[in-house]
Amino acid sequence: MKVVDALALALEVEKTELKFYLEMARIAKEEKARKMFLFLASEEAEHWRIFEEKLINELLKSCERPRIDEEIVKKLTPKVEGELSEIKAVEIGMEQEKATWEFYEKLAEEIRDEDVRKTLRELAKVEESHYELLKAQYDSVAKTGIWMDYQDFSLEVD
């Protein structure tokens, strides 16, 4: 896959995740759940900024119009149907983060540009940490019914 295509695709994936987390924050009844979803939305917005900056730089160098594989975007778009509980939103978020981190790892293997490869690998680790945050939250709510403060989790990546 060409670098411009990969960056444009990653930008679309981040946009779908941002929209998902903003919507989940909007419907969340629990304040700690709402704050966690807003935090994740802000993280995805930062990823969007990173990919957008890299895409613009690449477009200025190559003057190529990116081709976005809509099937991949569709596959990586969170599937939300009907009424959604907060715990179900966490399950969907876990699936989404796992799919995205695996996608970024795979994409990094295909890209020749070392800077973009490094960014994809770094953001794959961040997406994995988002998964871990959501999983810990899910486990806490499922076992105790208590939402933990998302700030109780470390999102540091190596």
UniProtKB/TrEMBL annotation:
Which InterPro entries does this UniProt record tie to the protein?
A: Ferritin-like, Ferritin-like_SF, Rr_diiron-bd_dom
Under the heading SUPFAM superfamilies, the entry gives: Ferritin-like
- State a single Pfam family of this protein: Rubrerythrin
Q: Where is the Rubrerythrin diiron-binding domain?
A: 5-137
Q: Name one GO molecular function term.
A: metal ion binding
Please state what the protein is called.
Rubrerythrin
- What is the species listed in this Swiss-Prot or TrEMBL entry? Pyrococcus horikoshii
